[in-house]
Amino acid sequence: MKKGGIAAIVVIAIIGAAIYGTGALRHAPAPNQPSPGQAPASSTSSPAGNASGNGAANKPTPNEKAAAATQKPAESPAERYCASDHDKADIQAIKQAGGLVQIFQHEGALADAYGCAKAYLKHGGKVNAVDPRADSKHLTPLLFAIKRNDPKMVHFMLNHGANPHQRGGPHHIKPYGYAVFEALHNQSTNYNAVINILDSALGNQPASSSGS
After folding, report:
1. What are the backbone angles phi and psi of residue 122, rounded to the nearest 5°?
2. Burial class (CB in 10 A: 0-12, 13-18, 19+), 160
3. What is the pLDDT of residues 2-55, one digit of tens each?
4. What is the rounded distance in angstroms from the CA atom of residue 86 to the CA atom of residue 98?
5. Beta-carbon count within 10 A of 141 CB
6. Considering only the top CATH level, what class is 131-212?
7. What are the domain boundaries of the chain?
């Protein structure tokens, strides 16, 4: 082949390579763009990742956990009253909170509920006072003791002047009738001891003129 023909072929090859390279560059994907058929990559973290991050940020510290474990629940009015010096205690506060009913409602949290009840009565508390709280059943302390089916508490109320004829509660019923009512509605529970105490109290005290 002549030199002129070879030179022409070389020139054509160089031009073709240049054209091919320019086209390849033109159609090459940008660094952050997906190639055809490839799903785009997300630049943000997944919701699960965010959630786990927020959860970790909201977790209590060991000190906060320890403080929560040792934090005591708010004291009831009965606990505050019974733990105080009864000669200086605000008796009106415990009266408004239910008086004897309030005290015996929290008997389990008190060191000596009966001793506290005696102090309450000594300082002006009333054994026949109806629980004045709006969310209560407006029971007298004796009716509350009957509802609890607690012979010791019933004895305590009667021995400290509770009136076995005084009506009270949502049905405005007398103590003996209330005991029978509770016995009929809770037949799996034996109310005989409480009913016998009330029988004895009624036998020792004449019925009031207001009727049964």
Report:
1. -65, -35
2. middle
3. 555 555 555 555 655 555 555 544 555 555 555 555 555 555 554 554 545 555
4. 17
5. 30
6. mainly alpha
7. 75-126, 131-212
